[in-house]
Write a structure and sequence with these properties.
Radius of gyration: 20 Å
Mean pLDDT: 85
Strand content: over 45%
Distance between the termini: 23 Å
Shape: elongated
Low-confidence stretches: 1-18
CATH topology: Porin
CATH architecture: Beta Barrel
């Protein structure tokens, strides 16, 4: 069983597409749950911004990944995992923002947004209250691997979407702090709803100080295989 877990985790981190990672998580979810570890899927929506840009709208995007909720002593846990499909950035960039990012504006009127594909890895200390509420806090790490400024324009006769990639201008590693809270809907092995806020300590753009990421995450967690394992243990005791 331990060998299967290690093989699966190795597969996940060898660069497979995010959809394949999530599919494998669902298939092997029951193998990754144990008495001290809850494994499952994390999904949700986030609203992100980049400091020092004049953009007046948060970039909203869907995110999906998997998590490990590791039990410690008493009511303490360690919460970690990877959001394999997630974006950070900012929306409704101004002309000054485009000049800062060295992006040429188009003649058509439209909206510009900075989008950054990021693998997000939290490492949070979590405390569970008796009423199924929890609070969590700790560092969060991001690997920013693809970045572009997206131009969108829509008229009666034409819809335009253009991507100007600026991946080489961003710092690949993002590090910051996360604080969150949430509620487990059922007493054991149930879905969890939560909210967390992230603030980055590193600059998004190379050589541009003060360009820190921030994001508000609305999330839901779905345990995979945990209920099945509990059912099997109950059957063993009855025998």
């Amino acid at each position: 069983m331990v060998i299967k877990k290690l093989v699966f985790i190795l597969i996940v981190f060898t660069g497979l597409q995010s959809q394949s990672q999530v599919l494998l998580s669902v298939i092997f979810g029951d193998m990754l749950n144990s008495e001290g570890v809850e494994f499952g899927l994390e999904g949700g929506y986030n609203f992100s911004d980049i400091a020092s840009l004049e953009a007046d709208k948060n970039l909203s995007s869907f995110n999906l990944g998997f998590y490990f909720d590791i039990k410690l002593k008493n009511q303490w846990n360690i919460y970690t995992g990877v959001l394999v499909k997630s974006k950070l950035g900012a929306d409704n960039l101004t002309t000054e923002d485009l000049e800062l990012l060295e992006i040429e504006a188009y003649e058509e009127e439209g909206n510009y947004s900075q989008k950054i594909n990021t693998f997000i890895v939290p490492a949070l200390l979590k405390y569970n209250f008796q009423n199924r509420m929890y609070v969590e806090a700790g560092p969060q790490f991001g690997l920013m691997y693809k970045s572009w400024v997206e131009f969108n324009s829509e008229t009666e006769n034409k819809t335009t979407r253009i991507k100007d990639f600026n991946t080489d201008n961003i710092n690949k590693l993002d590090v910051g702090f996360t604080l969150g809270t949430g509620y487990r809907l059922m007493k054991e092995n149930g879905m969890t709803l939560g909210i967390k806020y992230y603030y980055g300590f590193t600059n998004v753009y190379k050589g541009v100080d003060g360009t820190n990421n921030s994001s508000l995450f609305l999330k839901f967690n779905i345990p995979i295989g945990a209920a099945k394992k509990k059912s099997n243990k109950t059957s063993d005791k009855n025998e």
